[in-house]
Every structure is written in C-alpha cells, then in structure tokens.
Amino acid sequence: MLMVFGIAVEWAWNRPSSLRDCLAGFLFYFGAELVGAICVLTWWYTTGIPEGAWPRSLFLVECLSLLVLSEVSWYWLHRWGHTRQGWPWHRWHHVPDRYGVWLTPIGHPVFVVMAVVSRVIPGLALGASPEAYAVVGIFQMGISTVGHYNVDAGRWLSRIVVTPALHRWHHAPGARVNYGLSLTLWDQVFRTYYLPRREAARLGVKDQGPGEYEISDQLLDPFRRGVG
After folding, report:
1. Does residue 129 belong to any structural domain of this protein?
2. How many CB atoms lie within 10 A of CB 60?
C-alpha cells in the first residue's frame, strides 16, 4: 500500500517514476518479502517458534529494544555493503540514476538475505516474540519505503527517522553517509549523518556502464567483480 501511495505522491509532486521502474519495483518488492519470510519461517521451523521471554506488560519496551538493536545491526551491515568487500553485493541498489519508491526493494538476493538475518539475530538474543518482530518489521519497512519517495520532504523529521530528503544523499555517487534503515540514531552516534540544505543533484554509481539495468547482469555482477 505504501508503494502505491508513494507512486501517487510522486505524481502529485511532479516527479513520477516510469511505468517500467514501478513494475520492476513491485516485482522485487514481493520477491524480497518472500525471501525474507522463507528465511525466518525456515529458522523457526528448525529451531521452534520462540515463545518470547518478555512479559506482555513490557511489550512496548520489547519492541523499542528490538528496533534499536536491529537498527544497529543493519547499520553495520549496510556500512559493510559500502566497503570493497561488500560493495559487489550491495551495488545493485545504487545503480539506478533516478530516485523513486520503486527503489526500496531493489537489491541482490544475497544481500537481501543478509539484511533479513541482520534484523533477526538481535531478536533471538533478546528473546523477542513473533509479535514484536511483526511490529518492528512493519515499522522499518514502512519508513524505508517512504524514505525512497522521490520528493524533497521530511527534513524536520530527519533527526529521528529516515526521510526522502535525507536518504536521497545516500544514493549520491560515492556517498558514505546515512546508512540507517528507519532510524537516524546510529548515523548520528557514528557521525555518518549528512543533510545539507540543498538536494543531491546526481544519483547512481561512479562506474556506471551500459546495460546496468539488466537483471541477469546484476545477478552475476558480484562474481565478475570478484567476491571479497
């Protein structure tokens, strides 16, 4: 629903994504969600669905704890994705030189699995319940989706959550800033928060070449570049 709403917002803002981009985004959105669900359900099936170690009276604290820890886990995975070793797996998400809500789920399947695992592990350490996973997961994906809207908005909220104005700078060529998934807490703690008054003019990757949008090429790209 947020992707559909985002497309409407982009059209109203006079920055619409192309039909091809939108269709690709929807395809990868459902694909990424399916991969994530399979990973979590497989884990729970083999280890047993967790009962949850937190009393119901502390459900809000449980959710906030899971959110903060899963965000720091994602932060460091995402930051690794911008190193020499991790970039081949994460580069695909940055290839498009146009911003839009359709970008949210675009990424190499291997990195998608890493992202899911990075957010599941903190919950296992906390003894989080499936309900807490659901609440935090919906919040994170919701904010992340809105953060990819092609609008220069939300600056006043950027000190708390990821906004389009903030995350657009993460997609500037060679950027090493704004790694948060839904919160900007860890970017501020580790000094990678960056939001100037102007809007990022260029997007994409420095070494962009022809045929960069071809799915088959992107799937094989990490192996051609040399993994690790």
Report:
1. yes
2. 10
Helices (H), ranges, 81-154: 87-90, 109-126, 130-147
Question: Measured between alpha carbons, how far is 141 from 105 in angstroms, rounded to an integer?
Answer: 10
* Rounded Cα–Cα distance for residues 188 and 190 (Å): 6
Say what the pLDDT of residue 228 is.
46
Maximum separation of any 2 CA atoms in the chain, in Å: 56
Structure tokens belonging to residue 43 = 């884990």
Residue tagged 């389009």 (tokens): 164
Per DSSP, 102 falls in state G
Q: Please check whether residue 169 lies inside any domain of the structure.
A: yes
Bridge partners, 183 (sequence order)? 161
Q: Which residue range(s) make up the domain with 157? A: 2-47+59-205
CA distance 190 to 186: 6
pLDDT at 36: 65
Instruction: Please identify every stretch of the chain with a pLDDT value under 70, giving residue numbers as ranges.
Output: 1-37, 39-41, 43-45, 47-52, 102-103, 207-218, 225-228
pLDDT at 5: 46
- Return the SS3 of 117: helix
- Domain contains 211: no
Residue 33 CA to its chain's centroid (Å): 12
Residue 224 lies in a domain: no
- Paired strand residues for 161: 183
How many distinct structural domains can be found in the chain? 1
- CB-based contact 200:168 (threshold 8 Å): yes
